[in-house]
Amino acid sequence: MMPRNYKRKTNRGSTPNDVMAVAARRVIDNNESLRNVAEQFDVNFMTLQRYCSKIRKGQTPTTGYAKPRMVFNPEEEDMLVNYVIFASQIYYGLTTKEFRKLSFQFALQNSINCPKTWHENKTAGVEWCAKFLKRHPQLSIRTPEGTSLSRATSFNKANVDTFFDNLGAVLDKYKFAVNDIYNCDETGVTTVQQPRKIIAQKGVKQVGAVTSAERGTLVTVCFAVSASGNSIPPMLVFPRVNFREHFIANGPPGCCGSANPSGWMKEDDFLKFLKHFQEVTRCTKDHPVLLLLDNHESHVALSVINFCRDHGIVLVSFPPHCSHKLQPLDRSVFGPFKKFVNEASDGWMKSHPGKTMTIYDIPAIVKEALPRAATATNIPKGFQCTGIAPFDRNIFDESEFLPNYVTDRPHEATQAEPAEVTSDEPAEVVPEEPELVRPDEVRQDESHPHTEQNVGSPMLQDQHSMQPGPSRDAPRMTTITKSPEVIAPFPKAGPRKQARGGRRKRMSAILTSTPEKEKLEQEQQQKKQAKTLKPTKKRVNKKKNFAEPADCECLVCGDSYSNSAPGERWIKCVKCSGWSHDECTPGRSGTAYICDICGSSLMESSDSD
């Protein structure tokens, strides 16, 4: 078998055909010596003799080595390439094994002559696949990033257009400068880092690195940046009942802190951050600023909206599950920040051997990592690549919306009313439904010259079955009856199910506008009425400490019990009597459930003993 990456060691067969033809004419027409002509043109005299012999016999001679017979011609390989690229763009890419099986089925369904081993193994060969990728350098084997179905389907043309409509309306009214456009978001920093790559002995199966514990405790870091490259000192939320100033003694300059039992961002904590934000930016109603954020429950609370309206903070929310594309912090800051946090944590572990990292050591790590990630270069790039500053609603091309093609469902954003910027009695504006590109229109273009329009033609099939196999000299004509998409159709999701109850699905909106404020007030009033009318019942499961508590908040995600879906189970901590969703505590089986907060407290007390 020929090596996969064969390198020629001689220059045989590299003489151009026109040079060989001139040399042959000098031998045939001028009766010159064969060896002398071969020496002058630097070719092998036997090669020149065979070339002259073919001319005398009336044949058409060729030079060089004949290429090995190809299973598919270039046009058919282009069809496979386009199929593979489109499958990866909709986030349902093919592995090498799946691609080899598809190639065999493609050859079998179209009666294309293929090697015998393909029929024996029911798949294309490994070497053929490697050479196929080498012939098409636009393809490579990549490790895909896991993307949830919610993100893949929510980032669609309708949701993005609604967000840019709201953003454009706000920018047109207030004429914000670049330094008045901010984005804020939260991220978590734990006491257990992800170790960096190290140099170790080759061939060893397991290479370890010391971490603080097996399961870390999370501290929430809330951070805000402006499109000009400036940043607001962060806020750290600790998983403690009460906050003390010494928690952030070693933190970044100007930072603030808060605490709650879960360590997640809640309404009171975010309100405290907004007060910190207002003090730093010095925004007022006469000099407002724009703050872009997601639709977390703590961000859309009524107390938050009222504070922002009173202090000149205009809130615009992103569409749900679209922050990985639209949020500047996610695009250019949080990735490097997590990397530098791991580096700082590794350095802390090496400088404190035998000591366990606690949540009180995290502020110093954030102080070291945050300035390296939130630079004056990284921050503006995040606003630029999302189309926020400078404003560009066409920053995303059609290929980035292709993952949504799999569902083929109507978008909820097309049914929502965009928020108005005006203060009182806004006029209702219904956005036009975007023109979505159908899958067949995407695939049946110039790059796909053969569609399934010839499928079922018996005359064409008979003519194709009578054709001989491809030879080394004459290229085989393409008569494709079944395209790769017909053989392996792209996945399609079923119709959307209407869920009953659960959390309210929010869309992109101008949260500080009067219509949105009235909606929030109405929602809050309905919740209060539901609490007064709903009887409190308690049902305990003996296998696990399940029950239906009175209105409380989950220790893990911070969501309230009143927002629970019907039949959603809660579990009670035996130490602090706090409640958590059963889904937020996977694998915590047994009758005695202890939350992470109580568990970390017990661990710290045992370490001190």
Structural commentary:
The protein has 609 residues and is an alpha/beta fold. Among the domains are: 17-56; 74-144 and 455-487, no CATH class; 175-194 and 215-393, Ribonuclease H-like superfamily/Ribonuclease H (Nucleotidyltransferase, domain 5), CATH 3.30.420.10; 532-608, Herpes Virus-1 (2-Layer Sandwich). The chain is 36% helix and 8% strand. The chain contains 21 helices and nine strands. It has helices at 17-28, 34-40, 45-56, 74-89, 96-109, 116-121, 126-135, 149-154, 157-174, 267-281, 302-310, 323-326, 328-332, 334-351, 362-373, 378-385, 439-443, 458-465, 484-487, 514-533, 596-608, and strands at residues 181-190, 218-226, 231-239, 256-260, 289-293, 313-317, 546-547, 570-572, 579-581. The strands form two sheets. The chain has a six-stranded mixed sheet with strand order 4-3-2-1-5-6, with helices on both faces. A three-stranded antiparallel sheet has the order 7-8-9, with no helix packed on it. A hairpin with a 6-residue loop joins strand 8 and strand 9 (579-581). Helix 1 (17-28) crosses helix 3 and helix 14 (334-351) packs across helix 15. Residues 412-420, 422-473 and 540-547 have low confidence and may be disordered.
